[in-house]
Amino acid sequence: MLVHVPKDRIRKGMFIELVECPHSEFGKRRFLLTSDRDQKAIAATSAERVLVNTALGLDQNGRPVPGASTKSELARIERVQEKVETATVELRGNLDAIGAGERPDFDKLAPLVQSMANVWHATPTVALEMTRLKSKDEGTYVHSLAVATMMTQLADASGLDDETATLLGVAGLLHDIGKLQIPSDILNKPGRLTDEERQIIRDHPENGFQLLSQYGEIPPLVLDICRLHHEVLDGSGYPLGLKASQLTLPVRISTVCDVFEALTSARPYKAGWPVEQALDWMFERPQLFDRKLVVRLGGLLMPHAQESRYN
Ligand SMILES: [Fe+2]
Q: What domains, with CATH codes, occur in the chain?
């Protein structure tokens, strides 16, 4: 349940969805409050209230809600949070350098994929935690990390070998590299986009592909995913409008993970959808998304769901 709590009544252990400040002085959102520093920073904002999610932490009175996450789960979320923050800083450095024209360094990106894959093994829903923990200004970086993590696991569950699964992870890290060339006021615009702004955003797969293509050694699989992750089965995607028969399993995996992450994560202009709602929305659109992959992703994210089409 989401509740509004006066900012002087927030406690460590509450899960903060949003600090409701009119001037955005506190950009961090969707995180478990664990530090005095964040608590003081929130107190210093002009916000009067904070939006708290009682399903993921303490309630408005500082008490645990029956059926909500337990203490050990909160500790787990905190560990994932730390891991994601470290990985995000690393990825940010790498992607910024590539976006500025430096040669991509696979020796730096592959270990990032491996380390996130290791966190997943300890916590299968790690990619979801990442979408929850995303903060506004780190959108593209955390989105890329989450997509990369899901892609590696979905590749593995689809029977692809380890080497290909890791390569898909690297492709996930790089798939939105073209977005780093989009001005952030367009990327994070809360209102309706103009036709021109929409076109600038729709150019990012081709721009990213062109950027990476300058370097002869990028594997074709990574280039394909960068260019084709917004293609869908009926040909209504972009930039090329390819049809199902032209979309390989790795490309389909990238589309499913990319859309799922976008639906479930909070953005400056929308709250994240619950997991099952996002999966159902995609399941009901078999003309766009490979249904087998949607079901398989659901099985990975909700392994214990009862009476669900995803287990
Ligand atoms: Fe994209």
A: 2-53 (no CATH), 71-301 (1.10.3210.10)
